[in-house]
Protein 1
Amino acid sequence: MENNSLLNVQHLSHMFHLKRKMTVKAIDDVSFQIKKGEIYGLVGESGSGKSTVARCIMNIYKPSEGEIFYKGIPICKSKEFRKNRKMLQMTRQMIFQDSASSLNPRMKIEDIVAEPLCIYSGKGRPGKKEIEKQLELVGLDRSYMEKYPCELSGGQRQRVAIARALSTKPELIVADEPIASLDVSIQAQMVNLFRKLQKEQGFLHFFLIAHDLSMVEFLCDRTGVMYHGKLVEEGRTKDIFAHPEHEYTKALLAAVPIPDPRIERQKGEVL
């Protein structure tokens, strides 16, 4: 295992057991690393196994086979997980696609952002100044502290979810389709926010699950491509976008909408 890797996933497989003794292999022999200081993107169509990988990394699912090392710790082993539980809860956070369902509708934004620190830090409830600072990181002022999730737009709720994730000062944020449910204009704001946070918070690493290839191309240092539960291609993002090798990757990139068809037509005429 490389010393400069924050996360090392080795030969990961996971089975879902359905009724009548039926099983479905959601992920099959997946291996990759997230190196220190980088943003890693995992792309593929719905049902390819991306979210299952994310939930295994966060110990929501226990994989059927394989191992996951986080900071050198084999976190799939129950004994190791229990021994390092507090550190794992503090330094890994997850952002879900649907912010509406991931935020408690009965809690004020102030309490939502404070909750992880109350639970995990052992220092009690943070002061209002600290909560205000967390909201400022994601572009929200103190007036939002007294509001409830139902009073916010989709983009604002997702910002609150990010502020909550940042409150424990994590080293790894697993973001599962974090902009998929947002309007296009809000999506651009969120992508820029991720880039800003990664630049300002030098300790922060992102594992992005996405089907939006333009976001992955803009944000990610390296990218893996999932297809039917397998990691079919992996490498530097710019190399994968410029020279895809697997047929599925080629098809995925070919399906990306052209920004301006007139420019593409002009290119064709020149050629």
Protein 2
Amino acid sequence: MNASELNIPGLDLFSLYQYLIIFFIASIRISSFLISAPFFASSGIPLQARIVISISITAFLFPIIKVPDLQQIELFNLFMLIFSEIGIGVSVGLILNILFASAAVAGEKIASTAGLSMSSMIDPQSGGQTLVLSSVLSLFLISCFLSLDGHLFLIKLMIESYVYLPIGYTLDFSEVSKIGIDTFGKMLYLAALISLPVVGGLLMIQCSIGIITRSAPSLNLFSFGFPITLISVFIFLNLGVVPIANAFSDLTGMAINLIDNILHSPSKRSF
């Protein structure tokens, strides 16, 4: 029995319950994306802020999002619908994480070549220990990504996905897995592209140091070799700021095109 049957002014609790369920289903895709995507999933952004962003976007889109009639959906199919929405958001976020890992991989390669593998710090993105150069390059990538409005483009793509991938339809995850494998290859290529100039320069420096110590065995390699290598790292990184920024700009465009291709890939009904 509800308030209308008792002739008591107030809310129809059953209708309110239905609206809340529909709102929850409509928010799953955006919420899953914000939880798993780089930058948005950073420990520097509180969970409460991500919840507010998700609710705000869903409230803005709620009048135009088409949700299937829940009364005609069986319980099992309802769970399938929820998991498919989670899968869409998480798939987009994880593939972005794979692509953005190129900066961390490049930093680890440069650090290992320069003998800085022991220098680590708390990564503000993951909250764990990571190499200093990896953290610096990752933060540089995030800065380039935000300066190019990459986060706004991604949110726009997720909003538009409700038009050509409405609730009740899901991605062909076999195709998404193929895109993920291809993205892993692109990540390794970008990491090599970013680290190759610095690693190549360090290799030349270390070969020169080796020739010097071979000619003068009495010299202490550690006393002057490591400081020269350390200074060379900063010089090469300083000279490579613009090329690295251009590479990160290309990575941002690649990420946006990749997510656009994923969300436009063949879809099917989730139940």
